[in-house]
Amino acid sequence: MGRPGAGRLLYLSADPARVRAQLAGQCLTLAEAGPRRDDISTDEISPLPAMVHFDATLGRFAHTGFTAGGERPIARDALQQAGVTVLVGGRRYGKGSSREHSPLAELSAGIRLVVAESFERIYRQNADNLGLWTSTDLGLLLRLERGESVTLEEVLAGRDVQASAILRAGGLLAFGTGPTLPAPAPAEGPKTLFQKIIERHTLNPGFVRVDRRFIHEYYTGMCDHLLAAHFGPAYTLHDPASILCFEDHLAYVDRSPVHVAQGLVGGARRLGQAHRNFVARHGLLDHGPNDCREGGDGAQGISHALMTERYALPGELIVGTDSHTPHSGALGCVAFGVGSTEMANAFVTGAVRCGMPEVLRIEVQGRLPPGVSAKDLVLHLLALPALRAGAGVGRVFEFAGPAIVALGTDERATLCNMTAELGGFTGLVAPDAETQRFLRERRGLDVEIDAWMCSDPGAPYADVITVDAAALSPMVARPGDPGLGVALADLAQRPPVDIAYGGSCTAGKREDFAQYHAVLAWAAARGLTVAPHTTLYLQFGTADVAAHCAAQGWLAAFHAVGAQLLQPACGACANCGPGASTAAEQVTVSAINRNFPGRSGPGAVWLASPATVAASAVLGRLGSFEELQRQSG
């Protein structure tokens, strides 16, 4: 099993010249390669042009979005042409979305082993599921540089039993759910809420029963392809009534600058058709476009936002093909993202791979000051040195404390949603009276919060991070990574803003639109409008949010200041619609959840809260609502 020794290494250096030299045939050592890129995201491994494919064609695009020194040194087909079989990166390799396109692109390009100092949880799990080897043992590199082979057993050193078994089987679909073994006895002593929910869903060791599974159109064709290849075209699904399908990413593809410019609209339409074919063949519930056709009229809603609004319940276990599936943790359930192979396996077994990761408690004392939101809180957390260094990777984030209790469910969802950016497995908030209010007002449900639905006193936590909410102020994150946070008041230079974008799952909820409205209604009442050189887009997260804004009479203020309103879709957040930049010199302030290179177009993206996005649009530069009030009041 010496596959990785048969080809060549490529050190993913922070120096683009060294990357190009290796692709041209030069063999570098670990020392000669220089510092390796940290935080290589899945948006870089499989950039947008790759995402219209779901088969071996992905290999042509592997790492074409990789950025070093402001350049993209890896061209289409470059890894295959250079015969690369081993990739070497730095810390937190595979950050970002749950797109299994990334490890599948690497595997399809001939990569057999990825070595890095550390990996993001979803990326590594997807690699395991596909049979792509990964290792954090840099000691293997000296032998590989000499052309020696390494064995699977060496690569598996230090891995858990389940991951090792899956890789030995050749991937998850070959492994299934493993041998039928009795569920382990529940742990003794105090427990976290996460532990309690997992124990109530445990089947075999390492696998749990799933209450709800959901998928969106970027993954459906790949899941169908994987299942048909393994089981034949006549495969059947386990409990189809508990599967939900969504067309949310590509509803604005006709108005997506990059899709139109690069001729990707046809490929996007094929993804949508593959999704609908799967839905029809299996008789599944689908939340499709608003008017039941592809085009520019939006979708019924973003998948994980709709899951929270209409389906998720306290104590449930939910999986979806999106890294922001933890959104529903705001209701006190365990919800986490999985890749295509994981979902394919869950479709036919009703089970999903899940261990018992450590829980990190985020204790937020006091109350958030006026004008400071959950988005500011999570940008503060992302900038903490320990979390920047990966202290949250693979862990569960439990948000608690007086400031969390005071938040509405929409704001709690912002925190849980962005555990993806924190590197966490999932995030959750214990259900309480606010949860009951949300379910009663949004769904007409009277839900009882069972006594067990909380963490016990003395429950085991890996660590507790305490935050003084009263000390927080509006935050932004510099372009390139959500962890590059800085208090807006400390930012001396305020760049002019070309695009202001308010929307996405993170910032397209009712409470987010209440923030947009508070700023823009104030501006409209004083005759202010969006700055002449700035375009403001406001995109609803779901059709329910759009209806709520209309019922509240908020649309008048939005129109008065010159905002462009967009119907629900992932849109610019996924580089799939209006609001994405079209040139490198453009500056965007955005309420989306991540700003990795190329994520929302080629320009620079600053992350901010809904209020800051709206204020910046009127100011024409980066600025807070308080600053707008001082300048224009």
Nutshell version of this structure?
With 633 residues, this protein is of the alpha/beta class. Helices cover 35% and strands 14% of the residues. Helix 5 crosses helix 6, helix 12 crosses helix 16 (340-349) and helix 23 packs parallel to helix 26.
**What's the number of extended β-strand segments?**
22
Q: Estimate the mean pLDDT confidence.
A: 94
Task: Examine the secondary-structure arrangement and name the CATH architecture of the largest domain.
Answer: Alpha-Beta Barrel
| Poorly predicted sequence stretches spanning 5 or more consecutive residues | 292-296
Number of helices: 27
Backbone CA Rg: 23 Å
From the 3D structure, determine the CATH topology of the largest domain: Aconitase, domain 4
Distance between the termini: 70 Å
Structure class = alpha/beta
Q: Kindly report the spatial arrangement of strands forming the biggest sheet.
A: 17-16-22-21-18-19-20
Our count of domains comes out at: 4
CATH level 4 superfamily of the largest domain: Aconitase, domain 4
What is the overall silhouette?
Answer: globular
Largest sheet descriptor: 7 strands, mixed
CATH class value of the largest domain: Alpha Beta
Helix content: 25-40%
Proportion of residues in extended strands:
5-15%
What can you see in these coordinates?
By secondary structure, this protein is an alpha/beta fold. The radius of gyration is 23 Å and the shape is globular. The chain folds into four domains: 3-172, Aconitase, domain 4 (Alpha-Beta Barrel); 193-353, Aconitase, domain 3, CATH 3.30.499; 359-471, Aconitase, Domain 2; 475-632, Aconitase, domain 3 (2-Layer Sandwich). A seven-stranded mixed sheet has the order 17-16-22-21-18-19-20, sandwiched between helices. The protein has a five-stranded parallel sheet with strand order 8-7-6-9-10. α5 links the parallel β2 (84-88) and β3 (113-115). The protein is built from 27 helices and 22 strands.
